[in-house]
Amino acid sequence: MRQSQLFTKTRREAPADEVSKNAQLLIRAGYVHKEMAGVYDYLPLGHRTLQKIIQIIREEMNAIGGQELFLTALQDPAAWQKSGRWDDAVLDVWFKTKIKNDTEIGLATTHEEALTNLLRDQIKSYKDLPFSTYQFQTKFRNELRAKSGIMRGREFIMKDLYSFSKDKQEHDAFYAIAAEAYKKIFARLGLGNQTYFTYASGGSFSKYSHEFQTVCDAGEDIIYVDEAKGVAINEEVYNDPEVFSTSGLSKETLVQAKATEVGNIFTLGEKFSQALELTYMDAEGKPQYVFMGSYGIGPGRVMGTIVELLSDEKGIVWPEAVAPFTYHLVSLAGTDEAVVAYAEALYTDMTKAGKEVLFDDRDLRAGEKFADSDLMGMPYRIVIGKNTVATGEIELVHRATGVVEKVTREALLAQ
Ligand code: ATP
Ligand code: MG
Predict the structure, then answer these.
(1) pLDDT digits over 348-369, tens only?
(2) Of 63, 180, 239, 408, which is least surrounded by CB within 10 A?
(3) pTM value?
(4) Which residues line ligand 1 at a C-beta cut-off of 6 Å?
């Protein structure tokens, strides 16, 4: 990608009403645009990063057998009335609207009801179970607070996976596999060291649910962390003595921290299968309720969390796995023919070699280019100037550490 063609521009200031660090940096660097409080557009660079996060999650969900689908955002109240969650007093984040004949419909806050409902046509016998299915889909929630930038949107993408098992035992086995997949995901996303498997309130069936909480000042939750074990307890269940015997943690080794819930896994049990009559015939020909679980991750919240944790005073610092481009190729010396030719050829060859390169081919002062490059946060900056042409030595700057390496063209292409 040539930066001269990229329609997004960097800016010195974020909008005055934007209070969160992640959104301030992402707006300034041209990754997102703020439509209104809690509502953000993903521009080309932001879209690339979001898609990389999504792809990592997708690979790990496929690896545990998840089948990808895509459900509708528009929701039929009938299914939600059966579970009791159509009522605003029960679910207080609904956006509801009407279709032409004055019938009310909802914008999906989550998809347990719709999916359970449609699976009545698919699940017949014990032979149809177990399985899991997931999607990356837009959720709408009328969140009370929307001051955390892309970490808490009123419209946001969620990865939601749902598991369908014959009984609790079968469910528990999958639940453990899903928890391991989540650990892999957060490690691949560069958040492994700060992310804790956290005991939280359970809701309907099990005593506890489990959250994946990333320690982060911008987080809205309080957790108690056992660093050595990589396990934590959410403050919402901290005063329950049973959580200590269940988790094997003890108060003496726990440290309080602010954190953000990047993912969670829930045992739903028969809550939705009973409400929506999702049953299967067991081996004796008797109807049984399907045993369910749900497993969420917010890719946008993950992206915001990465920015919060890894940025510095100059701008964003992307881990390689999610950077929109791996390399930021910056050509200096304005229109100097030899420098332009060298940079152009390197850009072409790197791109041919399958590398992801953002090429700053603009005729701007070096200081401006470096400031933009720092703000945008690609992992490696390649600097091409008169000296490069003279010596054949290419400057490779690591964004995270500031380490400057001198490399040859061949080494760079082979990297
Ligand atoms: P929170 O307590 O932070 O509101 P939640 O319990 O409502 O989260 P779920 O409904 O289980 O979260 O959603 C699954 C995942 O989706 C969360 O773990 C989080 O990563 C993400 N998520 C939830 N709400 C938002 C939001 N408003 N904006 C962006 N991501 C979100
Ligand atoms: Mg919520």
Answers:
(1) 999 999 999 999 999 999 999 9
(2) 239
(3) 0.97
(4) 110, 141, 143, 152-153, 156, 158, 261-264, 296-298, 300-301
